Amino acid sequence: MNYIRHLNEFYTRLYHDKNLTAHHVSLYMALFQLWNQCHFAAEFPVNRLEVMQLSKIGSSNTYLRCLRQLTEWKYLIYIPSKKISVGSIIRITTFDATTDTPVIRLNKPLKTLQISKPRKDEVLIFFDSEKFPSGEAEKFFNHYQATGWMMGQNPIQNWQAAAINWMLNAEKFKPHEKPQRTHKKDHSAGHLNATTDKQYNEPL
Questions:
Q1: Residue 24 DSSP one-character state
Q2: Which of 14, 40, 77, 133 is the most buried if burial means most Cβ atoms within 10 Å?
Q3: Orientation angle between helical segments 134-146 and 120-129, nearest 10 degrees
Q4: For 14-51, what is each residue's pLDDT tens digit?
Q5: Max CA distance (Å), the chain
Q6: Distance, CA of 25 to CA of 46 (rounded, Å)
Q7: Distance between CA atoms of 14 and 21, rounded to whole angstroms?
């Protein structure tokens, strides 16, 4: 898959296609990035919240409308999931004629991609490379290992991004350092607060 040829062809179509708006382009580029992360697989699952955040689309109605229209205009194929816990499937139409990526066929049976779950050593290495505390790596791994690598009702598709969000939230809940207290004056007997260089020959 030559992504440069693909993008060049997409932008050529964008120039001539008056139907496309900024929302369509932003959504398409977000899906292209996820397609890239999946090594340009023939099909890949998507999480609506993740794609909306990546494309900066704030409305679910706008998101779904653009997906359906991009499907209608042959830029991709959107196959919604019937289960909340399973992501919808996207197949992006290949514009590069020299690609080795399988050609999209509507009658091709769907095959849900398995989302890989990281090993503990992978998490520890990633946290170390990002200069995150190893203790947080242990907490992160144990937490999501217990949830089956689910975030709410949705499977985690990018655990590295989830780890970064974990650390951002951890920073919010760090206890703020208390200001150092000044030395408390001792007013007990024998420790009167009086200067020793007072001039007693001066008037009060």
A1: H
A2: 40
A3: 140
A4: 999 999 999 999 999 999 999 988 888 889 899 889 99
A5: 108
A6: 17
A7: 9
- Confidence at 146, pLDDT banded by 50, 70, 90: confident
Three-state DSSP state, 106 = coil
* Cβ atoms of residues 101 and 1 within 8 Å: yes
d(CA 38, CA 50): 15
Tell me how far apart the alpha carbons of residues 7 and 95 are, in angstroms, rounded to a whole number: 8
Structure tokens at 117: 């779950």
76-79 and 88-92 strand pairing: antiparallel
Rounded CA-CA distance 151/130 in Å is: 22
Contact 99, 92 (CB under 8 A): no
What are the angstrom distances between the C-alpha of 178 and each of 83, 170, 175, 181, 182?
A: 49, 18, 9, 9, 12
Amino acid in position 79: I
Distance (Å, rounded) from C-alpha 201 to C-alpha 134? Answer: 67
Nearest to 31, CA basis, from 40, 19, 21: 40
- Single out the residue of 60, 48, 57, 49 nearest to residue 21, CA to CA: 57
Q: Which tokens is 67 given? A: 């997906």
Other CB atoms within 10 A of residue 172 CB: 6
Rounded to 5 degrees, what are φ and ψ at 36? -60, -45
